Amino acid sequence: MLVGGRYLLVEPVGEGGMGRVWRGYDQLLDREVAVKEVLLPQQLPTAEHAELAARTMREARAAARLNHPGVITIHDVVEHDGTPWIVMELISGRSLGAEIAAAGRLPWQRAAEIGGQVADALAHAHAAGIVHRDLKPDNVLLSGRRAIVTDFGIARFMNATTQLTGPGVMIGTPQYMAPEQLEGSSVGAAADMWALGATLYTAIEGVPPFDGPTIAAVITAVLTRIPTVPEHAGPLRDLLGALLAKDPAQRPDAQTVAHALAGQRSGPTVVPGPTGTQTVHAQAAQHTHPRLPAEEAMPTVTGIRSGPVPASPVPAFPSARQGAQRTRIFVAVGVVIVVAAIALTFILIKLNAKTTTPPPAAAATSSGHPSTAPTAVVDKVTSVPASALNTVGSGGGAFTGKIQAISGNPAPLTASGKPELLYIGAEYCPYCAAERWAMIVAMSRFGTFSGLATVKSAVTNGAGEQEPFPGTPTWTFAHARYSSQYLAFSEVELSTNIPDTSTGGYTALQTPTSAEQALLNKYDAPPYVPSPAYSGSIPFLDFGNKYVSIGAGYDPGVLSGLSWSTIAGDLSNPDSPVAKAVDGTANNLTAAICSMTGNKPATACTATVRSLEPQLKSL
């Protein structure tokens, strides 16, 4: 069947309450497309037919105004035999609803990744005055790591005066409709935030927050009941509670939620401890590992600091287990968390001496024990051409890190008469995994590494919960040696990536000295992080007590699915996403190191690098 004289329908790929979607072929532009056929009820009166047709035209016009990677692209809208058809971008993948049905439920880390993208798309739509009004798992498409919001079928302009719906007409799915929407009140952007909360709840728990055997039962639940406390939401629990607040004025907006959830992807790993205060003495011969829920686990813990729980401005989830609830969130430095209901207490690591188990000499590279890195790969990573690095510069926006000048003119951090770079991270941490690539590129301009071993970031922790960016290919500094006439280097890999079922976290690897721990306590805290909640984040870098960097310099997703060899090869191609992210971050790290070494050597501290140093203080 040919629609609009150019769109050949190939096969149906999905169907909803108001439309059927076909895989199509655009004969004019020689490309595959998705074609949505609006299914109007049979024997529909002429007036109502016209109303639905007008709604569809408005959908296309509204959605076509949006230009965002998280919003389905509308190519065309045509009428064929009296039926409106919408021609859209064809997405290769399945809906979030289908993903939930297949998996039962998703790890909270994956839900956070999806939710951050959906919230960003909603923020874009809301800024254009468009409300979705029917957000639900079936209207979120997944293609690889990308989440795309589709079916703005009942979208309306917030400043429009024309009502597309009449009395008695329900538009939307009750399980995902906000209370004010069900009551027939004026609906704004806050209704989409309720729907996002209900969608994420469903993704994490496998069931909607409100359900029932009939539509009336569902509506009654939405209007009068508080949802059951989510058991698998981890640090997202209270954010879900905020999104599902009955009062729309109490819900966070889309931009706020997008920023908060973006921290799950590109921020430093922030690990809270349990509510209350527990003390484990640093001098104990055997370090104690508190048993934490999967989403909180952090190995090598000897002390926990807790703060007061902020009052919640929204109804909280009631629970008999409130005293046992603990939360963790991965947050990008600079992102402001405005959901005050998220109570966080954060781990402080206080240990005495570094101990390292050498890597097996001939083990296969895996997500477990590290193995000796192939010489060819090491050579590529440690000798990226200066021409490629100079071409990349600051990374063209791929570098999203924050390198800050330390205030107060503290005594320089030195070792063996040379300025010292201190790194504290962990093998399981994907953000540390990303940062190590850039560190090796940068530090190889000042000296040489030996004994580098390859390893992957963790897939699941000791409690079986999936980590973000699982299995990111990387390196470990625990077994490496670094020599340079310009720079001293101290590394602390706090834990392996090997799950420890007894703690829910990972097996211990190295521990910082008391001096290193003191620096972590002093500079991995405000004002170098936005609030005390972020204290103790990793990766942590101290550039000779002159600059400090906390968190990854770029999105670890850049490395997802790539091999060590591919990443290493891409570093010399300044046009590749890998080079822009890794080399761009490396150049910024190099600028900070050059400020420590007096811009020596000149081969490292090039004009391109020196031009970046004045920007560091304001990053």
Describe the secondary structure blueprint for this structure.
Blueprint: E1 2-3, E2 7-15, E3 19-26, E4 31-38, H1 46-64, E5 74-80, E6 83-88, E7 94-95, H2 96-103, H3 108-127, E8 130-131, E9 140-143, E10 146-149, E11 156-157, H4 179-182, H5 189-205, H6 215-224, H7 237-243, H8 254-266, E12 269-270, E13 272-273, E14 303-305, E15 329-330, E16 345-348, E17 371-372, H9 375-382, H10 386-392, E18 403-405, E19 414-415, E20 418-425, H11 430-443, E21 448-450, E22 453-456, E23 473-476, E24 481-483, E25 488-493, E26 495-500, E27 505-508, H12 514-523, E28 540-543, E29 547-550, H13 564-570, H14 577-597, H15 607-610, H16 613-616
Overview of the molecule:
- The longest helix is centred in the C-terminal third of the chain and has 21 residues.
- The strands form nine sheets. The chain has a six-stranded antiparallel β-sheet, covered by helices on one side. Strands 18, 19, 20, 25, 28 and 29 form a six-stranded mixed β-sheet that branches.
- The radius of gyration is 26 Å and the shape is elongated.
- A hairpin with a 2-residue loop joins β9 and β10.
- It is an alpha+beta fold and 619 residues long.
- 28% of the residues lie in helices and 19% in strands.
- The protein starts with a strand and ends with a helix.
